[in-house]
Specification:
It is found in: Cell membrane. By secondary structure, the chain is an all-alpha fold. The protein contains 5 helices and no strands.
């Protein structure tokens, strides 16, 4: 397919999707670097081998996976011109995103209550890496929550229709990416 062909609208859509994927690829590279550094650092003598993630991180994983499902349902509802169903699904996605953040913060509190800190004399390289990975992901989740708010705002302004879904698809792609990214980080941290 020749990328220079098509209507102006089709070319604009392709360029927006390509820019989103460039951003996603750069974020993947950043987290690949961080997890690689984690693997290399795990060979250090001061690495904590008996550290396990608190249960809050398991529950947050369930919340974020469910949020991807509700956003997928919202997209199906929009395509079917069911605005009410799309509204409920979008709001559920936002609530689940906020629950995810709350559970992540609870996970940090649990880590601190176990006596592990990010900095200071009680800190360790292991917990410092966990904080960096999770906080970097939470920054992307914050961006994702802003994206969800924009999707909800545009939905209420009736900017999405079965024929005009580009903005919704871009926002949904980003949200699904941060969800998959967390799944990768959770599995990595839980099993490595």
């Amino acid at each position: 397919m020749d990328l220079t062909q098509g209507t102006e609208q089709e070319k604009t859509a392709r360029s927006k999707k390509m820019m989103l994927w460039f951003g996603i690829i750069s974020m993947v590279m950043m987290f690949a670097g961080l997890t690689s550094a984690y693997v290399v650092s795990s060979e250090r003598q001061d690495w904590l081998n008996d550290f396990t993630l608190p249960a809050s991180f398991i529950w947050s994983t369930l919340a974020i996976v469910t949020s991807s499902i509700t956003l997928f349902i919202a997209k199906k509802q929009l395509r079917a011109n069911n605005r009410k169903g799309a509204t409920y699904s979008l709001l559920a996605t936002l609530v689940l995103g906020v629950i995810f953040v709350g559970l992540q913060l609870q996970g940090f509190e649990d880590i601190i209550n176990l006596g592990f800190y990010f900095t200071g004399s009680e800190s360790s390289i292991t917990t410092s890496f966990i904080y960096v990975l999770v906080l970097a992901h939470l920054a992307h989740i914050a961006a994702g929550l802003i994206v969800l708010l924009v999707l909800i705002y545009n939905h209420f302004k009736q900017r999405y229709t079965a024929e005009q879904m580009l903005g919704f698809e871009l926002g949904a792609t980003f949200w699904h990416f941060v969800d998959v990214l967390w799944l990768y980080l959770f599995v990595f941290l839980y099993f490595f």
